[in-house]
Amino acid sequence: MAKRIYILVINFLLVTVISGCWDRVEINDIALVVALGFDKSEDGKYLVSVQIPLPQAQGGNPGISGGVKGNEGYYVDSSIGNTVEEAIDKIQDHTSRRFKFSHQRIVIIGEELARNGINQVLDFINRNGESRLSAYIIVAKGKAQDILNTHPQLEKIPSESIREMVKMGKGKTTREFLRDVYQIGKDPIIPLIQVTKNRTNNAKEEQSNPEIKNFAVFKDDKMVFKSSPKQTYGTFWMMDRFKGKTITFLIRNGKKMSVKIVGENRKISMMIKEGMPEFKVNLEVKGIIRENASSLNLEDLRAIHLVEKRMEQEIEDQIKDIIKKTLSMKIDSFGFGSYLFVKENIQWEDHWKKKWEDMLPDLKVKVHVDGTIEHSGFNTKGLRRERGDE
Amino acid sequence: MRAQISRLQLALLLANYSLSAALITFPQVIIDVALQNAWLVFFLVIPFVALLIMSGLSGRWNRSHWNVLSPEVTNHGWGAKVFAFVLLLFLTLVILKDLRSFTSLLQVGFLQETPLTIVTILIVLVLAYLAYLGLEVIARFNMLYFPALTFEFLFFIPLSLVDKMEVLNFQPILNFKTYPSLFQAFFNALPWAGEVVILFLLIGQVQPLKGAGRAAFWGTTFGLFLLYINIFTEISVMGAAFLSNQFFPEYAVAREISMTDVFDRLDLLLVVVWMPTMFSKMSLTLYGIHRTMNVLLGTNSRVLAFPLALAIGLLSLYVFQDNISYFKFYMTYRGIIGLVLELSIVALFMVLVRIEKKKKGTA
């Protein structure tokens, strides 16, 4: 009898609790946030923007996908709050569908906010179980909100266009950014994106596009400066992410040459002189000549050696430029301190850890580039050489 | 009919006992202290596990000596009751810790709007049902799901993350400055590895008995091996400094796994594979509590599992009203209380089997 009563009680309890989960939500009640933009508002609060794709415009089922505004495939909404969460809550208040952040792919930080520190934004992303650390993080020149409202030609959603761009070796995920912030002796460095107009002579086709031209250099969670074009190239080399890109440099008589990089291998070595660490960056580069604007005869081996030498010089300058700039500002973007922590842990803990920041401007870093031209391309001497033009 | 489990089932039960619940917050506990060297704790912990098992099972005994808390007997002696009481305390601490960390992860990661009470009640009802069905069912249930978890942690997670692993993340490996933190982490890890003492409740029901100790050792070692493989993966992907600031490092790593743009987020799938093994571990603990309570009350009631499960559920909600209080609790538990209880269980078991042998020898 007691057993039957127990079973009855259990069944009753089960019926009451399994009737439905509180977190159940229908697919036609959710809005997938694919990109988040964070800016500083005029009154110093957080201006948060969300970008939501409109599936009907992407070719989805209109019954479950939400409406289409004009001919755009996405919708951007923003709000201001004292905290990130408060701002998002305010957007949610006037949105008919519940936000889901689990498919968020891009996090864009406005430049002004980045310069003031993004600790709170990182806290929001890392604390929220729904958001993902595999989302790429970038800084916007100007407002993040403007980047989210661009109209890329080849993708239906700006966030997808940006993601594809940063995926090509330029970007860092939120995980990588957080790891750099937490890591001893390393400061983050991430791409900086800006809005540009496409160049077309058809006014109707003129559109604003997102474009990545620089890097935002951080000290801890604060952006300090943006890299110049030369420093941007130097950063790519130091990040070991130049492969597939093209380097253009002066070769002779003001004429230039373009070489596509097909292989790179960067190594950092270190030695201690008089109790102070000295670093050497060794870079092996392999390239294929893609364009020869000069009259150089590329059938001549001496010409190839000249190209290699000029290329090495150009790369060395690019690397030295970004290293000099970051170190002079007491920023360790390329993890020299982290390298010491790993390789010379005891000395790091005993001597360098506490004064590392002050040591950075005086840190000696040598750069050595070993360039190889693997192929001169399909042409032999080149058209102008054949004609005897100089 | 007396419930019996095979040596393989025992090994898998203990492997799962070492692994499933520890995945939730244990990595943070040792990474916070030993940072990039946390995975090396494995090599220190194994001798401790071997010592616990070997000392507990030392000597030549037969089943009747080992089955000190036999479910067939209702009038146990005072020695068995003291042993049952210590086991009860130990298992209650284990289940409270596991249940609360499980519900905590579910709450923050998946079911933010479902009341904690409901989640807890649902879980304890499942546990109660499994415990009610008995050891054989729990062992079979475990055999069904543990291989999937093994595949997940031995192959799937490391291979999916191999492109994100960085050698620098687990360097510097060792030097004399890192030894103190490594030994601190080892001490913190002891009570977790020591949970293997549940073996002394189960050993009397293993058939055949020969080689049961070896099965227990290899089972536990395998579970711990998977756990530390996982810690190694976590460190190499996320970096120790970042992980030491995460409540749920494993979940943070699971969120990183994506296979192409189509299978972009697999954390839910991974959790679904892992969840049954949590039920397996907690139901085994509840089964132990159920048996020890029967010994203390002098009864042999199976349905006692239900009120016990509900009481544990309510206790976990009442004692740990927020995740910080339970976190603080097991930080204390891991250090002293857990270890003292585990060592007491081994010592009491050693004494009891000798008393049993003497009794049976004179009878």
> What does the radius of gyration of chain A come to?
27 Å
Mean pLDDT of chain A: 84
* Helix/sheet category of chain B: mainly alpha
Give me the strand/helix succession of chain A.
HEEEHEHEEHHEHHEHEEEHEEEHHHHEH
C-alpha end-to-end distance of chain A: 108 Å
Rg of chain B over CA atoms, rounded to whole Å, is 20 Å
Biggest chain contact? A-B, 31 and 34 residues
In this structure, how is the largest beta sheet of chain A organized? 9 strands, mixed
Give me the count of strands of chain A: 15
Structure at a glance:
The complex is a heterodimer of chains A (390) and B (363). Chain A is of the alpha/beta class. In chain A, 34% of the residues lie in helices and 31% in strands.
Q: Would you spell out the secondary-structure blueprint of this structure?
A:
The complex is a heterodimer of chains A (390) and B (363).
Chain A: H1 2-17, E1 30-32, E2 35-40, E3 46-53, H2 62-65, E4 74-81, H3 84-93, E5 98-100, E6 106-110, H4 111-116, H5 119-127, E7 136-140, H6 144-148, H7 158-167, E8 172-173, H8 174-182, E9 189-197, E10 208-219, E11 222-226, H9 229-238, E12 246-252, E13 255-273, E14 276-292, H10 301-328, H11 336-343, H12 345-352, H13 356-359, E15 364-375, H14 383-387
Parallel strand pairs in A: 1-5, 2-6, 6-7, 7-9, 14-15
Antiparallel strand pairs in A: 2-3, 3-4, 7-8, 9-10, 10-11, 12-13, 13-14
Helix pairs in contact in A: 9-10, 11-12
Chain B: H1 7-19, H2 22-34, H3 41-56, H4 63-66, H5 78-109, H6 116-133, H7 135-160, H8 179-193, H9 199-202, H10 212-238, H11 240-243, H12 249-254, H13 267-297, H14 305-319, H15 323-362
